[in-house]
Amino acid sequence: MKTEHKRDAIHLFILILVACVLGIYLIVSTVLISKDGVFYIERAQRLASDPVGLVKEEFSPGFEFLIFATHEFVTLFTDNSSLFTWIYSAQSVTLLCRLFGLISLYFIGKMLVGSKRSFYAMLILILLPYPAKMTSDVLREWPHILFLSTGFLLLLCGSRCCKWWMFGLAGLVSGIGHIIRPEAAQLVIFGGMWLLYRLIRPECDLRRTGVGLALVALVIGFAIPFAPYAKARGRIIPENLRLLISYLETAESETNPELKAESGYETYTASGVPGLIAGAIGRLAGEISENLMYYFLPALVVGVYARVHRRSAVSDIERFFMSAFVSFNIIILILLYYDWQYMARRHCLPLVAFTILYVPAGLEVLAQWLEVSLSKGRLWTNPNPQLCFAILFVTGAGLCIPKLLLPARADKQGYLHAAEWLKNNTNPEDVIAVTDGRMSFYAEREGVVYGYVERDGVVYENEVPERAKYVVRIVKGEDEKPEVSGPAREEFSVWLDGQEKTKKIVIWRVL
Fold first, then answer.
1. CB neighbours of 183 closer than 8 A, spacing ≥ 6?
2. Which residues neighbour 2 within 8 Å (Cβ) at sequence distance 6 or greater?
3. Which of 69, 166, 271, 331 could form a disulfide with 158 if both were Cys (CB 3.0 to 4.6 A apart)?
4. How many helices and strands in the chain, by DSSP H and E?
5. Taking a C-beta distance cutoff of 8 angstroms, is the pair 157, 112 a contact?
6. Of 268, 184, 286, 265, which is closest to residue 225 (Cα–Cα)?
């Protein structure tokens, strides 16, 4: 037992060290955060003045609460709270959630596939560029995965050790995670289904009385954070889920073969449903492949097949919970695409983070095939599976590292130069019309986005507002000018990318 604990401690030390070093590097080297990152930080800044209003809005505010709390903690040690204090606080939240999430995922992997395979799986996950860069992009995916993996681990432990109170903790973690992303409530669904199954077929020390107690604890644990949150919002069902249900009902009753816009959302006839589902599956496969850098996708497929094929090595707990998790998240992603025709790499991160546990097993099988091929071809006199595994692993890491170390959005350095000019040459009360809200955000000025703006999957065209004092636009030609009601004078211009020099950011002052 001591040897096992020591091995886990060594594995976790290596994983946390590598993830921490890479995370700090990505934070420091990031040129510009994502648009969604700006959105979350601006909402976090509103918490001090309008917390109730923020809670009642459509998006879950849990991530913003974490950013706000971290910023308040940081300001205890400094009197100077700047914009970058908020940015670094937000990036620190995502990095810490990633580090703790890796710990939970490691122990899930240890229970399912063994500590050695779990260690290599987490190391691969750390080195994958897209999951790693979501830390510096200030996105809520890693906070979501932290609560999702912690609750999932508690469900596994409660099911294996027959401890009813672990289900209560899983419900509590699920309720807190639901405030970050509504999808965290899936833990209550999995746990409830498992316990209902155990009511019919009780096993181990947890008899029907204990199963009933565990089911009650699961629901109460979830209700502790969820009930006051739902009361403050004034609704139980999340807004996105309510819109999705309404959308599906409208699509089911639709008889017009043409697209119909209703409440800003597109509806389709039943004849278009198979095509949308096929498109969603194809998009899902593509996004997962990109997350895995394509190289690790065959290992994932082979690893899952090898695990399923060896049914004797898979416990009922693993078979149920992993099947439920994968099925639920695939359905959610298909519905996301069906509703908004949109899916991104970050939406697939939970699937990647959990299923990557089977990649090392797939690499082991591929290493055996490689050994056999080398032996038959007499290209290697004394091959062995461990060395072949190391070759496959190092090759994959070598493909990841160059893209991983590339600074995020280095081609948008001009945004910062334009923002600096706006901050130094405009008044705090001036309104800036921008095509990208990050320019006004970094300039610490009120910004109004104009041009083609996408909201909830629908593209709108906004004109430059009359109250805008300055207009910022990215242009390709020298003759491009903003469409404003009055005369405008060019004040400043800078290359968007100082190396390629194909586009310019131009700032006009409305006279």
1. 144, 148, 329, 332, 350
2. none
3. 166
4. 20, 9
5. no
6. 184
